[in-house]
Design a protein that fits this description.
four-stranded mixed sheet; 14 helices
Length: 495
Amino acid sequence: ASIVQPLIAPLYHGRSPHDLLNALLRSSASGHDTVRDTWRARIVDDDAWRRVLRQGVIDATASAPLEVAARTPQLPPVTTRPELQIQFVADQSVRDGQFANNAWLQELPRSMSKLTWDNAVYLSPRTAAVLRVAAGDVIELRQEGRSLRAPVWILPNHADHCLTLPLGHGRTRAGPVGDGVGFDAYRLRRSGAFWHDRIEIARTGARHEFATTQNHARMQGRDIIRSATLKDFRGNPQFAVDSERKRVPDVSLYPEHAYDGYKWGMAIDLNACIGCNACTIACQAENNIPVVGKQEVIRGREMHWIRVDRYFQDDGEADAAFQPVPCMHCEHAPCEEVCPVGATVHDSQGLNLQVYNRCVGTRFCSNNCPYKVRRFNFLQYSNQSDEKLAALANPEVTVRERGVMEKCTYCIQRIQRARIQAEQLGRPVRDGEVVTACQAVCPTQAISFGNLNDRTAQVNEYKASPRNYALLAELNTRPRTTYLARVTNPRTEEE
């Protein structure tokens, strides 16, 4: 259990949820007293209470782990002419609509569809072929005298004869951000059929333009995400490395450089990544990354420093795989050679840095980046005139202006903070003292970061794995960010 102690007075004469509940209950107790009384039975001593407030967590309050056993689902019998069914689900970002006015979440691409600033009627390719609709077609959903017009988005792996309707959109009083975004699926929801219902549809002939951050979902035979079954992995544990050795050049025109101090690097385990996009939001909050709006996303101008690509493994309907892609911090960085003003440079720790006040906006670096991880402020996306938004920004990170290129920095502000503290103590930075924002928030601990010159660092364990490989290694960019290939265990192989 966590207790958060307020550090400042409420902004704009606001009230906390505790004060609101006390007012409804006609209680004169303050919010502090309410929280204190709640935990008085467990934390009797005032010194212990002050210690809890400093720590922010209460010892011995973690939930006990659950034991979960897998079971085979009981599927309904297949009918020759099944009826169309609708399934209501909470939207991945705005949930039931409570976060509809949050611009960060509206612009966050949904894991499977990669849609932003919208919701859609999701259906399978086979169902779309039967209904003769394509992505972007607007259909009319009819259910017992009620109707709703909504656009279609086709998803591989989606259940046939089923239409999924995300909730939480189409609001009229959410606020300036959420008003009018998407369609309101609640209009078709009945009290007797909260999650599933029968539905009839009709084509309207109208079209809708979506904003999506990934328009291509196939790897076209390339091993962008490398994977093998458990059987194949046991037969050849070096499958990821062997694929890389065939194409990586051994020579380079770049001179070698020795990093005697710190040598930062990252490794991402694709077996652990579930595509939740938490890393994208954490990076956005940490690094003052602006939102750009639907029309700018349509133009391909989204600003996220780390994206999570989604690929389907073959041309059929196979499982999806996810790949977080930050800046690779290449040893042989193609972006650095083409910058006419030296705005993108390497430092003594091996980081590929962006000097904002040198950038003149040529975008040569973006054109020369094979990973497409550099972002350009085409317009003044950051609102610096509204004082209410000042508290939103991280004071350790510059708020960028129009005409500046930006990208992932491995959270250099966190690196510098840990390095300064370690120097004050007269010792080097220890493994685990620098945790990037994406690494800190990852629920599956898929991301490892640390000093490659520290042999005991966890990141070196990842790098030493036979599953470790570099993305687009044949280009000889020698990225500091590498990946651990996926190993799957289909049910047909080993239960």
